[in-house]
Amino acid sequence: MDSVKKLINYKINGEVVPVWVPSDQLYARGNDEILSNSLSDITYNQSWYKKGLTTFNFLNSGEFHLLKSGIQSTIKDILVKELSVNTDGFSLEKYHQYVRDDHSHFKIVSRTRDLFPNDFNFEISKIIPKFESFLNHNLTDVNSDTKEKAHIIVRINRPFSGDYNPPHKDMYEQYDANGILPKFVNFWVPIAGVTNKTSLPIVEGSHLIPESSVSRTLGNSIVGDNEYRVRFVKDWGSNALVRSSVNYGEVLIFSSYLIHGLALNQEKDMTRVALEFRLFRK
Asked: 124: exposed, middle or buried (C-beta count within 10 Å: 0-12, 13-18, 19+)?
């Protein structure tokens, strides 16, 4: 029997976005402390630390075209192998016209959410020195605490679908698992279909909100019809997010302690694609 659900209303850029969750889903608040600090958050000494985010132009037009075309070719190949789809005329923005149901989409994203640098025709490793110079930190894609190599996600978000994470902080999973405050920073790169109706919503300054004001799950969460590994942040003394403004060739860099998510694609006929990854302090 399906559990009874309740409605939570969020706001994205001032527009109400309703979300259904199980009425019996459990939430907890933390201690009266701010987890982001000089020891835990590698964005701490940045001039933009109080905001928790910034943008950085790191690709020229030729480099961006190479990256996008490579990702498009990769997705196209996966469509052929997994779904035997005729991909004539395919583009990333038209993805939803080729993948029309959730079952088929999940077969694709099971491949695209755990990628590594050698899965791309663009040498991801060559951009790390640019980020190191910008952040004034030595960076690596290997987690020094777990020794695991961080994966890269090609996030594919179809129009008016559930192809997004709920509001969350990326650092909670590792923190809940072993009590370690992970020292990584988030990178979000727009690839296709990124507009003011599809871009990543974020809560500026939320890394400085005390944990006693944040109500969240302590394990996997259910939001809408999906189960998520991320810890769902139900509220933080507010339910308002603002879509980030990021141009092609730029990267959105933000603290792993920042609340973000609920990236509903509100474009009627355009898929949004973005590249997501993390880098750790070396």
From this structure: middle
